[in-house]
Amino acid sequence: MLSTAFFPTAVPPRPNGRYAHIILLRETDSYALFQTDGELNTARVHAGVARDELLTRITMFKRKQTTPERLIGRELLRRYGLVSGEQAPEKGGKTDERGVAIDTAGLPICDYNVEFCKQCPDCISYGFAIGDAGSEKSKVYSDTAYSLSAFDASHEAFTLNAPYEGGTMSRKGEVTSRINEQDHVRPQTLFPAVITVRDLTAPLFLYVLNNVLRTRRYGAQTTRTGTMTNHILGIALADGEIFSNLHFTQRLYDHLAARAALDPAQPIAVDVALQAARELIPTLLQEDQVAVTQYLAGDELAGFLADFGGRTRDEGGMRELLQAAARDSATYHAAYIQKKGKK
Fold first, then answer.
1. Which of 75, 149, 246, 311 has CA atoms 20 to 30 A from the CA of 287?
2. pLDDT value at position 162?
3. Whether the Cβ atoms of residue 135 and residue 127 lie closer than 8 Å to each other
4. Helices (H), 42-89
């Protein structure tokens, strides 16, 4: 099981070198959109480390990963009555003795990207910035993820239209111009990734892990497409950061190419990529200049995730987890953020 003794008993004010890494393979389950200015985000990089030919890959920027996961966590905090579901008041409004905006029930109001409460698990874990009102650095590190396969094999262009209620594209003899072509990421496109959590308590780490496991939609148009599965490959507890997303992707590409498991005309078999990644990760960890306290993988990881899933599928277990994370967040707020606000 996961070594909870590794985690600090309270979130420290300064970095203490306690890094918990969630190593995963993100798999698109439907057509997804990871775009900026109407086009899919791409990068021209080397295919692998050993195979140094250039390859265009689809990129999934940090915010495309962390924002959906944050919103899932915030949804749960509201569902279990730990933060208010109300929007921040435009001016004035009721506050508690610490100056935090609250609703009529006394719950803190935490309005994403408008007015953060600065004390809930989301604010303390993922950070916030409120102009002159203060900021808190994120303790969840995430970097751009790169598709394992090339852009040409990973995207598909669709012509989109918006018909009238009659099902046609014309009305009163006029044809609508609501036709557009858009590139989509194909299903079963794989994005190797590492999420690094620094100096959070065990309940706050589990809060972040739960968000990753529960989030199923990423990218644009998330009510219609963009479903994704996050395959957890391992959890590494160490005294420093481990390999990057790009290095992980390139080394995994090399590993698959050496086994003739890459066919440009076909999607990469998910089970083959998962097995290859599981074989590769211990080697990558050994190459990093960090001391790994625990690497949870294989049957041990499966047992831990099954036990954790059993807890979070029960309302009582989920409430207990969120309440523990909220207590640790409130303690950090009272010790460091609230004090800074008084100066």
1. 149
2. 52
3. yes
4. 62-79
pTM of this structure = 0.90
Check if the beta carbon of residue 174 is closer than 8 Å to that of residue 292: no
Residue 57 tokens read as: 């890959």
Domain housing 152: 4-82+120-156+180-342
Query: Phi and psi of 217, rounded to 5°?
Result: -130, 130
Q: For 172-214, write each residue's pLDDT tens digit.
A: 556 555 555 677 788 999 999 999 999 999 999 999 999 999 9
Q: What are phi and psi of 26, to 5 degrees?
A: -90, 130
Q: Is 96 a domain residue?
A: no
> Regarding beta strands 42-46 and 145-146, do their DSSP bridges make them parallel or antiparallel, or are they unpaired?
unpaired
pLDDT tens track for 28-53: 999 888 877 667 889 999 999 999 89
- Would you say 11 and 202 are in contact if contact means Cβ atoms under 8 Å apart? no
Do 236 and 21 meet the contact criterion of CB atoms below 8 Å apart?
yes
On the 0-12 / 13-18 / 19+ scale of CB atoms within 10 A, 293 is middle
Number of domains making up the chain: 1
| Cα 144–chain centre separation | 11
User: Which amino acid is present at 154?
Assistant: S
By mean pLDDT, which of 152-156, 162-166, 294-298 is the weakest?
162-166
Position 333 pLDDT exceeds 50: yes
287 in any annotated domain: yes
For residue 151, tell me if it sits in a domain. Answer: yes
